[in-house]
Structures
1.
Amino acid sequence: MLEAKIEQAVVFKRVLDAIKDLVEHANFDCNEEGLHLQAMDSSHVALSAVQLRSEGFEEYRCDRPMSIGVAITSLTKVMRSAQNNDILNMRKGDNADSLHLVFEGTSSDRIGEFDLKLMDIDTEHLGIPDTEYDAVVKLSSSEFARICRDLANVGESVKITITKEGVTFSTEGEIGDARMTLKQGSGSAARLDDEDDGGLDDDDADKPSKKRRTDAGSSSAAGGVVPVEIQLEKAVALTFSVQYLVNFTKAAPLSSAVTLHMADKVPLLVEFAFENGHVRYYLAPKLAEVRYEASDTDR
């Protein structure tokens, strides 16, 4: 039996928004530690990994490990029925073939109930080897989202160069070229613009959601400034598909900061970490044949 309660449905909505353009269907693996999801995109270029620790739930119970196979698009459609500040309850019996979701309004007696049909998804956990990265840079997630969107208007690929002085994002396209540099120690506002907040529906636009606390994403939309922090073993420069990077920025509403981990000839790790979980993306560099091999032990 799985029973999980999230104080604000917006947290789970934002998690789904972060992966829905990359993952068609996947298993939520549940155990006493929380919910975990790992899935490749259809091209086997990007890997998405989600963790929601049990501490981030208002209530959490998982009697035994189980996998809940869902169509991400279908689950996203169901979650659109929830207001951002609704209380979300999820329940699945040991032998149930559906996931029971209940949305409880906090300002009214409204209760919505849905039973989502589950899928039998036969997938192996993908091996993610331990990697020592040459360069790690932490920056504002909203600034990262803005840079990726702006460069996507110019070219199809983005070269990320990290040195001790800063991080540079550059691209070339038919209309010209563009380059944006963030210097070590410089800061950007952590607040997300409305257009960055992928977890909000149109009918929630009048709600002060950015000022509300979110359990799993408590650092989301926080005020203040996020300074650029660089840890460098050696300078590194790699090129990636800008469209994938734009898709990754859908996780920006979950965290005020994003961390990029880079090393030669290995996938880029883009991490949005929050108090009780994370969303991670692994992206193969362009012009490199980097694929993940299945493993029975790795998650």
2.
Amino acid sequence: MSPTRDNVHREYDVFKDSLLRYLGYANEVGESFRFMVPVKVVWFSYFVSSGYVIADALDKGYKVWKKPFQKEEKRLEKTAIATIDTLIWQGLASVAIPGFTINRICWATNKLMTRTALPQPVKKWTVVVVGIGSIPFIVKPIDRAVDLLMDSTLRKLYNHK
């Protein structure tokens, strides 16, 4: 997202503005099922999320690459910046921060469930439901936080050139 995303109309972004966005949260679904499935299933969910992140970064880089530039060096620089910016943004907003957050939510829920007399299947499914159910509540705050972080750090470095 651009630093002025709230002040100007932003172009539709299929990776951030459509249901495709939820592929970036596949790892959170995997984390939610961590206590019920083999760990390889959880790691596969990270593979799906990482594929989404890479696809978005390549898309952003390609869109810049297609634009006309007077100098080839400028094309390479701007393409690299767009690609790396997207990799960092998506890596933080779609994989690292939500993955950690859901992991901790599920861990805490599981700890609470071990203190109850509920049947084991109910305990396990409660962890899954709480984990998946928390996803809609964490998406926008994390996206905004990552925008603010990047706007106040990295983007200041490469937007002044």
3.
Amino acid sequence: MTLDRVLSELHLHLYGCIRPEALLRHLAGCEKVRWQEYEEAMAAAYGEVPPVREIVERYRQGDAAAAAEFAGLFVFGDADAGDFGRFQAKFRLLVVASALGDRHGPPEAIRAEVAGFAAGVRADHVRHGVGYAEHRIMLGRGLDSPGERAVLDTLLAAYDRDGAGPAGPAERLALSLHRADPWAAWDRVREIALGPHGAVLTGVDFCHVEEGHPPKDVAEFFAEVRAFNDAHPERALAILYHVGESFRDKSLESAVRWVQEAAELGAHRLGHAIALGVDPGAYGPHTRTESAAERLDQIGYDLRHREGLRAAGVRVDPAALEEERARLAALPGDAVVTVSYDRDRLAEVRHRQDYAMSRVRATGAVVEVCPTSNRRIGGIADPAHHPVHRFLAAGLPVVVSSDDPGIFGTTLAAELDWVCEQTGGGAELREHLIRAARRARSEVLTGRVRAD
């Protein structure tokens, strides 16, 4: 297989790659499953508890229908769309049956589980034509408990095969850090990056809930990563940043701004970035809220970028903004500001997106598009509203990935097919996207290796 046809998966969460049948086998063999934790999460998100316990027991007894029923309950499908809380509840099933979920458990049990799942994921990649995969994993804040060390030692050794062992894709690891305090893990990240398996640690990731964690909060950390990269170019780390995926806590304007800010702070790849390119008209006239502090940040942005925004067709009234800023400054930062959207304001958001896309493009940041994930977590029901149309039209560097192919019931090939079909790009676009993904590997973006 030639390199320009090898599929490269750049946005994958390791445990989200576990297919329903593999999880069901694991559950059936578990002595201990924290069922209450899962069932409480499902009851809170869905208002009912699915009969997963009973299905697992039927599977143990050899019921041939159990596997299909389990997959139907586990996969986060179109009927679940538009609610990140629902996604988290379903994902909880991967946690409650996992030795990894109890990071203070016996390290040997953790090693065995992680090695088994990693081997299964690798086999899945082979089946679906993936020749290169970057996996992300989120553990505790410090990454330093015996259990966490067992997880990372197992994965690093598995990925650092140097061509030895079973055939399979080249695999790399990115460590997902906690948005509230990435510094807690930084010493451990440096230790791994400069250690014997550091060649396969190629990035740090920021995922999970983004509400309440503006990109500005990690500006200093991003600068520290860049300094590390300058000092150790052979072990440089890409910054992978989920942003603009879920933005219920803010205005559409602020959501767009967050994506631009993440790129300009130095993120190499932007996860999802739905807010940057989704058709604002898809939301229709509606009302949103954000904090006074967030609105003040948006006012500051509008004033700093007034000329560029105006050139893009956005009305900016400095006097009115200064007056609003003075009024909001007297309020507590968490005071609620209401923002109402009519058709005119939604059209103006589109102009803001155009401006922000031009700024993101200038940074060289790559946007990771995960179509099924975007449609279901982002609740984008109409394919015409999906941001990939505008990303491609704007000339943004774009890669396509599957995010959590196990829980979404998808493959990278299916995601590429969807993009090419919906945009009309056909085989030519598919080849372009496959090559673009090779060029957007973390180790290429940081300069560790040259693009193929």
